[in-house]
Structures are given as structure tokens and as C-alpha cells.
Amino acid sequence: MILKEVPMCERPREKLLQEGSEKLSNIELLAILLRTGCKDENVLEVAKKVIYLLEDITDLSSLTIQELTKIKGIGESKAITILASVELGKRISEHKQNKLTFANPKEIFEYFYPRVKDLKQEHLYVIYLDLKGKVTAIKNLTIGTISSTLIDANLIFKWAYKLSSTNFILVHNHPSGDATPSIADIKLTIDLVKKSKIVNLEVLDHVIIGDEYFSMRKNIKDIKVF
Question: How far does CA 143 lie from the centroid of its chain?
């Protein structure tokens, strides 16, 4: 199907104008960067091939020009445009994170809610902090299912050491909108807190994002989590 045969409201550029960039999928955003497809495939189909190569959208930053140009429909010029856009986005993100601080769970909720409210699976984020409480990085480390998240202690610790962060905050979303932690959420957090203390790291909080938020440090009183 050529792009002209795609309904106007579903074309990436027109959709962005009507609904805003945040409503576009990764494929649609990439299609805008690519601008055109090739002889046998429209730009959305070419963009789809790129996205389907990735396990996670952040993997786009690790692709090389050589890898991109192996994909039919992407020449050197388009590959350069993709990598330049990725690098610009990275620099914007790093600049924002360098200035970012969270004074309380409410501020964490306000930052994450727009980013996770439409997700269909649970995503685990880790906010890494320096000794002054400033954010050194925010990493989306694992993706779970509709109703459960994965807490990989080794992966969390690996990034803590790489970033020289001794303190961190866990954040994950509940697609159902109910921010109440499950028994598994609490058990996994208790286990991670124990493991963190052994390696001289500290879990400051675990904040769950739904339509509202739940702070395990603030809201759990009947059992010791931290």
C-alpha cells in the first residue's frame, strides 16, 4: 500500500498536527524522520522494519549507519537523520535529568504519570541519585506483564555502580490504574532492600503509579519494608 492510500487521519504528519506528537507510535515518529519509503514499501512499512529489529526503543541509539543502511528503503542520508535525531534526544534527556530532583512521591507521580498512563504492560524504572539527591539517570530496566513487574537486582546494581549512585528509587506502573501494591510487589521490594544493604546500596522508596500513586515507604506501616 502506498502512503496516499492510507487514510489522511492515519498518516503520521497529519496525525501529529491534529493530535500532537505524544499520540504517535514509535513507528509513526520514525516514519516522519524517514520522510519517504521505497519503490515497493511506503514509509510506515520501512519504519516498521527498523522498529521490529529492536528489543526496546532505546536500542535505536546503538544501531550503526552500516546496520541501518542494510534495511531496504534506508540510505546513508536517512540513517544519518535517524542517528542525529537519537543523539539530540539523548542530549535533551541528559540535560533535563541533570537538573532533576524529586522532593517527594507526589513529584515522582507528576513526572511519570504522563509517560506511563497509556502503557499496557508494567515497566520498572529506577531513578538513580547522587549524594546530594540529584538525579544522575532514570533507567527503564525491565518490562513485565499486564499484572506483574520484574525486579532484577543484578541489573539494578550494575547500573548503580556504572553511575556511581549509592541511592535509588524504584518506580513501576499499574496499567489497571489501581496503584495498590500486590503481595508480590511488596515481597520483591523487601528482598531487593535486603540485597541492596549487603552491597552498600540503599533503596529509598518504591513508588507505584496508577491513576494515583502509592509510596511503599510512606504508606506501608504494618510491616517493615525498608
Answer: 9
